[in-house]
Amino acid sequence: QVQLVESGGGLVQPGGSLRLSCAASGSGFSIYALGWYRQAPQKQRELVAQIRNGGSTNYADSVKGRFTISRDNAKNSVYLQMNSLEPEDTAVYYCAAGYFGLPPRYWGQGTQVTVSS
């Protein structure tokens, strides 16, 4: 069982940056693929970035070149560095963990990111 807690969300102006963190407790963290998802109002939840236990990453086309996902297994944590933020990035961001290629097994509670002037 893994519990995930996100932090780092907030209000930022367009062009600004935020760094989201997700801290995990429980066992098995290092074997899971970790992902950041987001859900904007009246839209479906979408995968933003994912990092496998070996370190390989993939990103949604809309965030490539602007967002970077990383993990620190020693700290049981995963991060999302978000640069050049746009109003379209406004959403609740969720951390998730699970086996690669399958739906996530564990979800955090979400953290709000609002990009607005």
Structural account:
It is a single chain. The model has no long low-confidence stretch (mean pLDDT 95). A hairpin with a 6-residue loop joins strand 4 and strand 5. The protein is 0% helix and 52% strand. 32% of the residues are buried. The strands form two sheets. Strands 2, 4, 5, 6, 9, 10 and 11 form a seven-stranded mixed sheet that branches.
SSE pattern: EEEEEEEEEEE
The biggest beta sheet is recorded as: 7 strands, mixed
Described by its quaternary structure, the protein is: single chain
Based on helices, strands and strand pairing, what is the structural class?
Answer: mainly beta
Mean pLDDT: 95
Question: What's the number of helices?
Answer: 0
Assign an overall shape.
globular
Helicity, as a percent range:
under 10%
**Proportion of residues in β-strands:** over 45%
**What is the CA-atom radius of gyration, in angstroms?**
13 Å
Low-confidence stretches: none
Tell me how many strands there are: 11
Q: CA-to-CA gap between the ends?
A: 40 Å
